[in-house]
Amino acid sequence: MSTPIPQPPGLPVLGNIFDIDPSNTWWSLKTLAEKYGEIFKIKVLGHQIVFIASAALAEEICDEKRFRKYVGGPIVEIRYSVHDSLFVAYEHEESWGIHHRIVAPHLSPESTAGHFDEILLCTDELIANWKTHGATKFQPLKDLNNLNLEATTLSLFGKKLGVIGAAEEHPMIQAMEDATSEAMKRPNRPKLLNWLVYGGKFKKATKVMRSFGAEIVKYRHEHSTGRKDLLSALMNGTDPETGKKLTDEQVIDEIVTMPIGSSTAPCALTSLIMFLLENPEVVTRGREELGRVVGKDQLHHDHLDRLEYIKGVVRETLRLSQAAPGFNIEPIPKTNGDKSPVLLQGGKYQVAHNQPMIIVLAGVNRDPEVFDEPHKFKPERMIGENFERLPAGVKKWFGNGKRACIGKHWAWEFLEVVTAKLIKEIDFEVVDSNYVLKQDGWFNVRPIDFYVKAKARA
Ligand code: HEM
Prior knowledge:
Layout: H1 25-36, E1 39-44, E2 47-52, H2 55-61, E3 67-69, H3 74-77, H4 79-82, H5 94-103, H6 109-114, H7 116-131, H8 140-157, H9 171-185, H10 191-222, H11 230-236, H12 248-262, H13 264-278, H14 280-293, H15 301-304, H16 308-321, E4 326-331, E5 342-344, E6 349-351, E7 357-360, H17 361-364, H18 384-389, H19 408-425, E8 426-430, E9 439-441, E10 445-447, E11 452-456
Parallel strand pairs: 2-7
Antiparallel strand pairs: 1-2, 3-4, 4-7, 5-6, 8-11, 9-10
The chain binds protoporphyrin IX containing FE.
Residues 69, 86-87, 100, 152, 257-258, 261-262, 264-265, 268, 323-324, 327-328, 397-399, 403-407, 410-411 line the site of protoporphyrin IX containing FE.
Cofactor: FMN; heme; FAD
GO molecular function, one term: iron ion binding
């Protein structure tokens, strides 16, 4: 006999519509995970979704022999902007393999190492800017968004935007926010309303993002270069398996997809600053390691591997920030058409043969079965043997299997560089000592209304 999957009470017909705040879905899911634990379900307008919030269940449904990425809901909606690009491609689309094989070599650890100097250059610009901030309070997210877009565009597409330290965010950032927020909200609105009232906003955001992509292509045509970067692969590369190339539209699809994926990193870094302010001993230990390994040298790529404590800080940031808040999974359909229920935990729970499930990392990453004091920021648990001993289910911040984050090596290097530089060179100051964490976001989550002051390390 299986255990029923808990569900909040809800209303007839409308179901659990009031259990999810459409303007802050992930916060609602975090709250439900805290209340219901390892698994729960909700039903909205006849659609049922199961949510997974424990490490053991996450590990089980990350078994690629039984489950795969579910392309549904907001992921399908954002296809309006990026068509069949990597993040949104259906399992059956040939394009995923073609794009993957063209893109992956240019986001490998070796390629990413080749971009170290560009990432460092952008980070140094931000650090120099923050050193002059002094008594002025500011929202780190805005500057980190600009830094991330600058570093992504420079290293992957060879174009310097010049937005670091700018008073305003680059228009691409607002467009990504508008498009992803719209993609999240559309599945729960009537289609007519989406088209009549909100279609314009989606169209405008898409236009801005695709113009950004087109500008990058134009810039490359006008500035011939020997760079063998991601842009060059997108524009000229051939899939080694099929011999196919990307169309002009598909090149823009991927140029737009990369900053959308990458925009998760500044969310994690904003959380990191909050964690550092709450845990001054982490700054002390980080500085001790940086002093020992880097000393008075400029940071270079060879240092990264030796910064064990900084790696622990980055992993703990990924765990607790839940910057990418979750991902979708579904059972792989049986070839013989068998529609019998899928058993989880050896039959403890049963779900339908085609049940969409969402892994809620706010639950999984703070599973009390795995972590003592799961809410505390403790980089030591993410280092060496402690990290190796952790179950695979709590290491899914970059997703799973073949559909895991293709930008994870780039993201890791960026996070490590920025973390090391911030800890080594900047003193942060709390602006509001009563600040209580509140997050929002769409395809990623970040602390909101979070201000700090920054100055050069004393
Ligand atoms: C802290 C930084 C990042 C985190 C936590 C993160 C997390 C994730 C996660 C969880 C997925 C799986 C999504 C799913 O299953 O639906 C994913 C996929 C993806 N990410 Fe990232 N990401 C980060 C940075 C980046 C960067 C820097 C890029 C590009 C340069 C990127 C590009 C992508 C793409 C294209 C996919 C889709 C891959 C596919 O389905 O083949 N991400 N990411």
